[in-house]
Amino acid sequence: MSVLDIAKGMGVTLGHLFKKPVTVLYPEEKVDIKPRFRGRHHLLKHPDSDLEKCIGCSLCAAACPAYAIYVEAEENDPNDPTSAGERYAKIYEINMLRCIFCGLCEEACPTGAIVLGHEFELADFRYQDFIYGKDELMVGVKGSKWQRREAAKKNKEVNIGVKSVPRKELEGVNYD
Amino acid sequence: MDPWYITLIKAFLVSIALLGGFAYLTLIQRKLLGRMQHRYGPNRVGPFGLLQPIADAIKAIFKEDIVVTAADKFVYYLAPFLSISFALVAFGAIPAGPANSLFGFDPWVMDLDIGLLYVFAATSIGVYGIFLGGWASNNKYSLLGSLRSAAQMISYELGLGLSALTVILITGSLNFREIVDFNVWGMHPLLWIPLIIAFITYFISSTAEINNTPFDLPEAEQELVAGYLTEYSSIKWALYMMAEYVNLFTAAAVLSSLFLGGWRGPAFLDQVIPGISQWPLIWLLLKMAMIVFTFIWLQATLPRFRYDQVMRIGWIWLFEIALFAALLTAALIAFVV
Q: Whose CB among A53, B102, B145, B247 lies 3.0–4.6 Å from A111's, allowing a Cys bridge?
């Protein structure tokens, strides 16, 4: 190591002293998440007809390696259908404590109804609060159960720490 | 000369200032190192992390104070106090301004004719704190760390002393006030050559003396856990850290007093604000801040030397170069000037 090399190194560190840190001050600043990040699931709807994409086929539950998904299907009422298919999911539950966020449910889904989004702040206090039902997963619901509970207490809007743009599979989801 | 009680008050204030400076130097160091590594450094406790040192202090005091069963208890307790007291004591000889300039009092604690020797003596006794602590801990990492530390400090004291000898030969005094008062512009221009060499060797030696990176072998985490600090916890550990940082301040103050004009400001500023170069404290603090920044900058840049490299640099390079500078000065003073 020559003196010149040391001087060069000192120059590098001094230069970096004046650069902006790469740290994201997370709770204050929002995180910009990469498109293919796998966070909490969303159950999607057909945007034009407002019908659920999920047809209650249980392929996601079959594909799930962690047995985190429970689906109970029922026939659609022909006059007032819930989903676009013959049947729909009467109960659709994901246990977020079991889920390993592998995305196999998304791959197994024939209609693209279940898609993993970018929300990742899923911490909560009780076991039962980690079981997300259909109403929690449905598109348009923003934030985890805890975040929505806190927001309701303080009478504020749900504020999630994500500022990314959802990928195109996440039809109708937005994180603004 | 001030009466003894004023000296006592000044000594107390200097100690408080050094310990407060230590607390905030840890914050500044962590912030600077963070920024050099594209991080923010501590910014959670208080605005801009300004309360971080206080949080650290409270934590250090309330942590469990573990005493090793097999330790030599008396020495084990004595060592950190030895370290911190001699680190604090060493600072006393350094003047921070001209006589009677600080509210009518002298801005130094002691005006010693052997000031430089005194500082060297006090900082050398500081080695005992580290060595005894490492030995009394009854732990092989501690012992290895303290052995390294003792070897390193003793080796680099040669370079330190010989570099200082150049200054002593030129100024003809060991008193810090007279060294600072020496008029460099009036000396023979050839004397600049050994002085610049001595400045570089002195800087490197004092970096090693205060165990700053690249010479931080005594604490080499990767090999020695934490060196002599391994078995120390709670406030005893904090005392060692204090000693280390106070030594850093002392090294910066001695370096600026010997080579950078101590408490004197640049004379050309007197044309803007008359007498500014004679103001006490600020110039010394400014120079110390510059040197301390350089030490932190080195920490961010350089990797640690290997033990044999440290010894080779100390004995083969620094010792010889400093000796050459001292001999050159002596020859110049004897035959040229």
A: A53
